[in-house]
Design goal:
It is built from three helices and six strands. With 148 residues, the protein is an alpha+beta fold.
Length: 148
């Protein structure tokens, strides 16, 4: 279950649902959840998996790129050498921060677009949620039929 507090302090209690309207899949994992109180559908978008090599490319030392370039920040525990772990820690923290900033941006862009074009643009209400287990950001949006 996901619990989210929205901008007007309303609270949503969301559970996974088998209902899956047709949507564009894109490059991120998505799933539908349902509000237990109202039955409203919401779309949950997970951050795209990014690796050290994807983000930092040639800016990290060659030996790190060769040995750890395939890792994402949630795989930092796979670095067993303490010296390497210490050297890579800032990179993994930057990657995590980037995921949070990108997810926050999705929420803000929707708010800005809605404010700029209130009469002509329909955008879903979006929420930023931090998964308490994985500490990964999730973007939760109201499902609008025929909005893709």
């Amino acid at each position: 279950m996901i619990s989210v507090i929205g901008d007007s302090q309303e609270q949503l209690f969301l559970i996974p649902t088998k209902v899956a309207p047709a949507i564009c899949h894109g490059s991120t994992r998505k799933e539908f959840v349902k509000d237990t109180l109202t039955g409203a559908l919401y779309l949950v978008k997970y951050p795209r998996r990014r690796t050290l090599a994807d983000i930092f490319g040639d800016s990290i030392p060659v030996e790190f790129r060769a040995n750890y370039g395939h890792l994402s920040y949630d795989q930092a525990d796979q670095v067993h050498n303490n010296k390497d772990k210490g050297a890579l820690k800032p990179y993994f923290e930057d990657m995590r921060d980037l995921d949070i900033e990108i997810s926050f941006g999705e929420v803000v862009y929707s708010l800005v677009a809605r404010a700029l074009f209130p009469a002509s643009l329909v955008t879903p209400k979006t929420y930023l949620h931090m998964n308490p287990k994985t500490q990964k950001p999730l973007v939760i949006s109201e499902y609008i039929p025929e909005f893709n």
